[in-house]
């Protein structure tokens, strides 16, 4: 399940859905709005294998690694959020739910940075070349 934080504009959720990417938004589709960070983490524990997409840098923290969910910080402009969610979901390294669980990822224009469970180092990847 792809879950968008309420700091992702609603029109970006609608764009993702138009592209055929299923997603639910905090404060709209699930949970109440204005959840604190701790409440978001508790919500993720109750959902089935979610990937949480947020524009909140506080979620880019290796202490938040957990095998039951993935966290993605969209370090891009609000109006680019949908595009970069789609880019991540199409990236070979993150294309399946199983590849995203237990990860904390930063998505930005130059590429991706991420931590994996049981690995201490921060890894970096560039975006694949567009065809």
Mean pLDDT: 93
- Content of β-strand: 15-25%
Number of domains: 1
Count of discrete alpha- or pi-helical segments spanning 4 or more residues? 4
How much is the radius of gyration in Å? 14 Å
Largest sheet: 7 strands, mixed
Distance between the termini: 28 Å
Helix content: 25-40%
Q: Would you tell me the structural class of the helices and strands?
A: alpha/beta
**What's the count of strands?**
7
The ordered string of helix (H) and strand (E) elements is EHEHEEHHEEE
Poorly predicted runs are none
Largest sheet strand order: 2-1-3-4-5-6-7
The rough form would be described as: globular
How would you explain this protein's 3D organization?
It is built from four helices and seven strands. By secondary structure, the protein is α/β, with parallel strands linked by helices. It has one domain (2-126). Helix 1 packs across helix 3. The N and C termini lie far apart (28 Å). The relative contact order is 0.17. The model has no long low-confidence stretch (mean pLDDT 93).
Give me the secondary-structure topology:
Elements: E1 2-4, H1 10-18, E2 24-25, H2 37-46, E3 51-54, E4 70-74, H3 81-90, H4 97-100, E5 103-108, E6 111-116, E7 123-126
Parallel strand pairs: 1-2, 1-3, 3-4, 4-5
Antiparallel strand pairs: 5-6, 6-7
Helix pairs in contact: 1-3
Task: Put the structure in a nutshell.
The protein has helices spanning 10-18, 37-46, 81-90, 97-100, and strands at residues 2-4, 24-25, 51-54, 70-74, 103-108, 111-116, 123-126.
């Amino acid at each position: 399940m792809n879950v968008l934080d309420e700091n992702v504009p609603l029109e970006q959720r609608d764009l993702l859905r138009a592209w055929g990417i299923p997603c639910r938004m905090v404060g709209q589709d699930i949970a109440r709005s204005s959840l604190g960070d701790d409440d978001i983490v508790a919500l993720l524990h109750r959902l089935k294998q979610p990937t949480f997409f947020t524009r909140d840098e506080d979620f880019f923290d290796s202490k938040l690694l957990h095998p039951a969910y993935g966290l993605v910080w969209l370090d891009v402009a609000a109006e680019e959020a949908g595009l970069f969610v789609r880019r991540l979901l199409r990236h070979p390294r993150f294309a399946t739910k199983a590849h995203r669980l237990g990860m904390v990822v930063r998505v930005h224009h130059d590429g991706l940075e991420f931590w994996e469970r049981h690995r201490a180092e921060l890894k970096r990847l560039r975006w694949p070349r567009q065809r």
